[in-house]
Amino acid sequence: MTKLLLNWLTNGPAAQQLISFDHHDIMTGSLFCAHVTHLHNQLSQSDAKRWLLAAQKSDLFAAGLCAALLAGKQVILPANTQRGTLSELNHEFDAIIADKPLCEAGEFVSLKKELSLPAANWPKASTLGELVLFTSGSSGQPKAITKTLAQLDAEVSILEHTFAQHLPHCSVVSTVSHQHIYGLLFKILWPLAASRAFLSEQIDYPETLSYYLAIMPNLCLISSPAQLTRLPDALDNQLQQRTPSLIFSSGGPLNFESAQAVKQCFKQLPIEVFGSTETGGIAYRRQHQQQQTWQPFERVNVNADPQDGALMLQSVYLDNPDTWVKCDDKIELLENGQFRLLHRLDRIVKIEEKRLSLAQLEHLLQTHPFVSDAAVTVLEQPRTMLGAAVCLNELGRQTLKDEGKLAINTALKNHLLSQFERITLPKRWRYPNTLPLNSQGKRTSADIAALFIHD
Amino acid sequence: MNLHNQIKQLIIDSLDLEDVTIDDIDTDAALFGEGLGLDSIDALELGLAIKKEFDVKIEANSDATKAHFFSVASLASFIESQRV
Fold it and tell me: A272 and A364, same structural domain?
């Protein structure tokens, strides 16, 4: 387990390393090098330390990322680029490096593909920068998580060590975004460091995946339950002629039936990776059977808190690899060191693998001029989604009477869009006169969920 | 039922949209983002439902697919263009 990522970032790509491709273009090692140098020059001349990074295309994102790290900058990755999210973070960054000017903020360095850049040597770094990822905290406030290159390097090196034997001559395609830790590691950093080309666009449709499977001999698919639960139906649950070399799924639990359906189409079970932005990867599994246990990665130690069963973690991916950190998932630890995941111990939930805080969403709903109180719960039928129970004030009730329920739903959704991605918004809305309390005067999620049961 | 309404009903049924009726869906308005407010998972599920119901082929080129799925009107012309 050598320092795969650190070595690569220090020396840069070989001229013949293919960095990325899409259906009409490629990014060669030398062209990538020219982009990184060009961006590095601009960043080095700036006093701004904290740079918000965002780009649609993974090749441009990777160039911006490498340039900023080599220039010793702090790279800020927001949970999403919704306008309200960025304005909440505006004290956390000084400048923006992106493919479009996202908001009014000091300096802006533009990420775009330029074919006329002069050939250049890979920049030499005196100090390497670090990453700061913002994700949902359980209090509802965005939470900053710093990742040093040493931490990212440990993760990339162990991924290569654990899985490389299944990936000879592979290219990497992904249905998940590179803006979050999973896509960032699996689609950008690991492929760069291990000389695997990645697809610079994100795959949205099963047809696009089939296209790349048909034209590329060896593909590693980076995906998530949102896609993998729907993919087999789109492929008529038929065994495909061309199948990926390896399929990864992360971001949330993949149900057993979906894992089996993926196997039906692609002759293999996805490798699921369990972890979080804070902890990095913790464990992995293939669901050969129901209740399949999780195998911790090498150099990751797992224990269960004797009080509440919470996962305790000691990991080389953490800031301090010697301390035990308590996580918010309850586990059942087995004698062989593997474990079963039970449930979350806080109010952070995942909708289509997007992590969000129910407290933050409720708080934002309560600030709408129609609303006096709001409670949000996770519903499991017909798919995992949020249900919002909202008590309207006088203005809200009048508007409901005049314009109807759909109009109120839409108004509240538009309000939530300032901080939440559309895919996570509540899909079921109820407007009771009061929110139910139990006999101890507490609001329970079961009572809220009961409001959504159809009679 | 005409094709536009047939598509609207399919959208409501396949995505299990509560509180939405055929009359609430504007034939020319964007289905995704602004407009009806569908998300990227809805896009996946709607793609599957349209394929099954109308027996059409969806292209690998995602820009073309996005154009076909822009509105009820564009979906209707896409479906009609594949009819023999």
Answer: no
Number of domains within chain A: 3
CB-CB contact of A206 with B19 (8 Å): no
Residues 6+ apart with CB under 8 A from A310: A304, A326, A327, A328, A329, A330, A331, A345
Residue A136 lies in a domain: yes
- Please write the tens of the pLDDT for every residue from B17-67: 999 999 999 999 999 887 788 988 898 899 999 998 998 888 877 788 889
Q: What secondary structure letter does DSSP report for A340?
A: E
Spatial contact of A351 and A377, defined as CB atoms under 8 Å apart: no
The residues on B that touch A, with CB distances below 8 Å, are: 16, 18-20, 24, 33, 37, 39-41, 43-45, 47-48, 51, 58-62, 65
Which CATH number is A135's domain given?
A: 3.40.50.12780
To the question of pTM greater than 0.90 for the whole model, the response is: no
Q: Give the distance from residue B15's alpha carbon to the nearest chain A alpha carbon, in angstroms.
A: 10
Contact (CB<8Å) A207/B58: yes
CB A86 within 8 A of CB A102: yes
**Strands A339-344 vs A348-351: parallel, antiparallel or unpaired:** unpaired
Which pair of tokens denotes residue A63?
Answer: 């160039």
Q: Which domain holds residue A278?
A: 203-345
| Nearest chain A Cα distance for residue B20, angstroms | 7
Give the separation between CA A153 and CA A149, rounded to whole angstroms. Answer: 6
Residues of chain A neighbouring B19 (CB-CB closer than 8 A): 405-406, 409, 429
A403 to chain B, closest Cα gap in Å: 12
- Secondary structure of B11-42 in the HEC alphabet? HHHHCCCCCCCHHHCCCCCCCECCCCCECHHH
Confidence band of A455 (pLDDT split at 50, 70, 90): very low
Q: Is A331 exposed, middle or buried (0-12, 13-18, 19+ CB in 10 A)?
A: buried
Domains of chain B, start order: 3-81 (1.10.1200.10)
Torsion angle in degrees (nearest 10) through CA of B70, B72, B73, B77: 90
